[in-house]
Fold these 4 entries.
Entry 1:
Amino acid sequence: MADTLKLVKKISRLADGKRSLRFMEVCGTHTVAIFRSGIRQILPDNVELVSGPGCPVCVTCDEYIDKAIAYARRKNFVIATFGDMLKVPGSRSSLAAVSAEGADVRIVYSPLDAIKLAEENPHKQIIFLAVGFETTAPTAAATVIAARIRGVKNLFMLSAQKLVPPALKLLLNDAAVHVDGFLLPGHVAVVVGAKAFKFLATDFRIPSAIGGFEADEILSALVNLLEQVDSGRATVANEYRSVVTDDGNVAAQRVLAQVYAVADAEWRGMGVIPASGLRMRDEFAEFDIERVEPIEIERGGKKSACRCGDVLRGLINPTQCPLFGRACKPLHAIGPCMVSVEGVCAAWFKYGGSNFKW
Ligand code: SF4
């Protein structure tokens, strides 16, 4: 507690007399940790925290959900997915809805569970929804390698995995986005290493700090960001040294590179970002459902009033979406940012209450 108070006082001292500052966290776990620990409420009025595109479910676009639904409707196909994908709305329906209509959609807790499912159901085609950032992508890659070694022929991936650094680059090149520094995602940094974010300082001269997930770790990272602003320098500070190294987890990077190549990817509300996704290499094409069994989806579904895209770019707070807390609530979510437990809108709804900082 003594350390926490010291950090809070230091933040106040560093922020005193400064213009308004906006720092963006780009990790859903950070978003939830910041709310849960009440950090927003103790920050000086001129320091604002905004959430960026840090929740993998939230940044997954409608088209991907539509494809998953189309596969789910096929006879003998089973969709294996993490639970928070179920209620994410596509352009016309959701996996939860097609499951209620009779499609076979199963919740798994790891991609490795999908191998077991495939082995237990040899006459069905199992599709794992590989959604996530650098943190989880190596596990999906390891699953593909394990499936090959075990001779599993009925397991496939529908991939929408994404890379965080190119998204940050896009935000910084977007004139509508105003950010004075980034609280960088600790989990992603464990895999990619601090050096993957060096471009923030060298190319954009924007302060950034890799942070852990305890309140004091987040506060330390914020102190560091304010010190950088104060001194007029920009660096990639590593405030999560217990687990993040400069090079990251090289073994995980190797597994990932063995199975996946970098490719362009579409992000919800941000469009196609060059080199921000992963595509299975040709050597593993037999596990890529889109190449084994391509599917056509109907385009141009109903236009939603959901403003997740603006929320994910830090342009608005969730409460500025007219549907927030009215038509859109966790039990009746209109957009993915309210569905996922790490979604920004869900966090504002759950922890904001009367303490919303406008
Ligand atoms: S409150 Fe709901 S509708 Fe509005 S941006 Fe968030 S998820 Fe979308």
Entry 2:
Amino acid sequence: MNLKIVPCVAFAGVMALVVMGNSSYAGDGTPPPALYSQLEAFHGHVCAGSIFGARLGLAAKEALKEAGGTGKFTARYYDLSCPVDGIQVAAGTTYGNKALTVQERDEHRLVLTASGNKRAVEARLTKKAEELGLKSRDLGKKAKPLAANSPERLNLEMEMEDIYTWLKTAPTGEVVSVTRLNGIKASR
Ligand SMILES: [Zn+2]
């Protein structure tokens, strides 16, 4: 397979994340392969950021359902970059259906709120996921100037593929940390 690598520059503004609270939720909802195919077609390239978005979006959606959230779910994300597309595909909260707003704060943090009873959850990346995302971006930068199909470039691309595979398939609790914001309106 000749994978086209486009480094995800928009994902560069990263990222001091703190895992919060002690009510963290580790769901087991790993997105199915079909969702990733859909995401790749929608987003236009494969990158750690869009995969993160899918993981955050699906984990948050499942956690909010489990928390008894009612009515339409709306998403707020705090960085305008690749994860936004993953969230739209995986959580079904889209810009067009007015279920997604983005605030530029350089934070990879998703707050999903149930409009019916205002229950809300917050999803962030784990330290490991965050570090692997940064690593894949660095590998992409190294690969870009190398001749296509050179052994060196193929090696880097294989390393990136391994990272993407892990980010796509690792248990949710290893990639995402979800916290319930019980009944607190997520508008700060
Ligand atoms: Zn991307």
Entry 3:
Amino acid sequence: MGLTVTPLDAADLPTLDAAYRIAEAARAVDEPDLPPTCRRRFEALLRHPMPGIDGRWLVARLDGEPVGWLRLHLHTLENTENASAELVVDPIHRRRGIGRALHEHGVRLLREHGGKRLVGSTAAALPGAEGPVFPGAAFAAAVGAKPANADVRRRLDVTALDRPRLAALLADARAAATGYRTVHWRDHTPDEYVADTAHLEGRLLLDAPMGELAWEQQKMDAQRKRGVERALDARGVRRYNTGAVHEASGRLVGWSQLSLEASSTEHAWQQITIVDPGHRGHRLGLLCKVANLAYALGHEPALRTVDTWNAAANDHMIAINEQLGFRPVAGSVDWQLTI
Ligand SMILES: CC(C)(COP(=O)(O)OP(=O)(O)OC[C@H]1O[C@@H](n2cnc3c(N)ncnc32)[C@H](O)[C@@H]1OP(=O)(O)O)[C@@H](O)C(=O)NCCC(=O)NCCS
């Protein structure tokens, strides 16, 4: 029978389970310090894609048994010539051409949709550090992709938090932020702030360095933002948010979000933190992030670890994270292949 590559049928639960087990086996080998892959999120990516994502999953089988998969996200609202790719081969079946076969099917599928670029991330050593060969990086280079952006994952050990120092940082930030007040919310943005958070999220890429990636900013509006929230609800993601409201105008001009996956009480992701350019220089970024961490900790007593990603070149955000106690633990590279 040999090697076959076919689309994943969403009704085929045994194959979805096998794909999940492959993801988890790969995570344990490739990024063992990350928490286990959340099963609910994994399935929701298939059944409840984000607005603007047309997800295509391909499964590779060896003699009928699933051994790897490729998830292609075609973008329908912006970046319509780009596809984001996640490619995983079961660690016990690597170096047998399965990755390459999935990749070639993906390139064909993208061509049929008029796409021009594939973008994917691989684990890497920290910038400047010597590391082992990372299979994903070796593979990406072998298929002709170019490294386009370097990211660093930083980790906060909550058990070693310097709480007095954080309280002092928060007090300093509040003193610098006269004329602004903080507001907190959980999963769903209050109606009065949904347009402001959509505006902030939509302009994020103008500020976050993207290296050589050919990537447009998202066309985010209140309606799409609600769609994002529904997709996150389907994944069971718990979100903690803190915003900074400019008291004179009532506008929400700063925002930070931290989230936990359905499968985890110990691990969180520090997500977006952004301040509107017209309101920078008042320590609102630090204020939102520190206040939000305190807010989340108040509801998540088991939380031990927070991870966050930043472009290696994002000096300003990195400085804030270092002040909070985040320290570099891993690198990643975004690869771009023009097909
Ligand atoms: C990357 C990955 C999908 C490759 O799957 P695979 O089935 O082993 O890949 P292939 O056998 O088709 O390898 C194709 C070529 O990539 C290169 N390559 C792949 N793994 C490599 C490794 N560990 N060391 C060096 N080169 C490697 C080789 O040039 C290889 O050709 P060769 O075996 O003829 O020398 C797999 O290692 C994996 O799942 N990694 C973790 C997830 C990941 O990083 N995915 C992102 C990929 S963009």
Entry 4:
Amino acid sequence: MAKEVFVCPEESAFYAQCLHMLLIGHCQTASVIHEFGSGDGMPVIEAVLRACFQGVIHGYEINDVSWNLANNQIKLHQIEHRYIVHNASFFNFCNKPYSSTLVTNPPYLPAWNDNCLYIKGLYGGIDGSMISRRLLSLEYSTVLLMVSSFSNPAGLLQFASEQGYSVVDFLIRPLSFGRYSSQPEVKSRIVELYHEQKAFFSEHYYLLAGVVFQKQNHADMELSADLIAVMQSLQ
Ligand SMILES: C[S@@+](CC[C@H](N)C(=O)[O-])C[C@H]1O[C@@H](n2cnc3c(N)ncnc32)[C@H](O)[C@@H]1O
């Protein structure tokens, strides 16, 4: 059973801001939203409390300790009717989506394997984009995905485009390398990706973007090009 929980207040607060500004703040009609990897639940709770969101968010979290924390916070804030977190792997329940919208701050740490990580649940495959790609393969019509500048962002956006997604909005900010991204095995993999033009960062920080993807018949990749241009400016 995983004991250590994801703690990165700066990153979680930005995810909450993206949820509010890019999605939930506009969602005044009742809708069902799925969330991959709820953590302690606070990003969604903050976003829901700030908005007049009338729907229900079903979160999935594999880490038992995080799931307990999320449930305690949901009860404390009395939003059990708006946010339900299930202690299960997302992929066991949501391979065929019964909702049209998916939100997530996914695992995006690149490394050659997950053995070295403080928290295995933060492993994003050898280039950091493995879970994000899997999530973009599930046919949700709208996906709010946090995208890191060191996890092969251009490759991920190309993959999204091949799945029929366009980037319709994004927010981006610098984040300091923290406990998880500074682990030597992760940092050395990020440097390898930099040499392959798949990671963009400066000495102390990288960029994290909250990106809204939408399935569209007419691909309009203008925003996608803008997003990559901002990330590549860190080279
Ligand atoms: C980067 S953390 C984000 C946590 C929280 N959403 C936040 O932003 O503060 C990713 C979370 O995904 C969870 N996770 C990893 N694989 C999962 C899976 N297959 N199903 C559900 N949750 C998963 C991890 O345990 C971790 O809590």
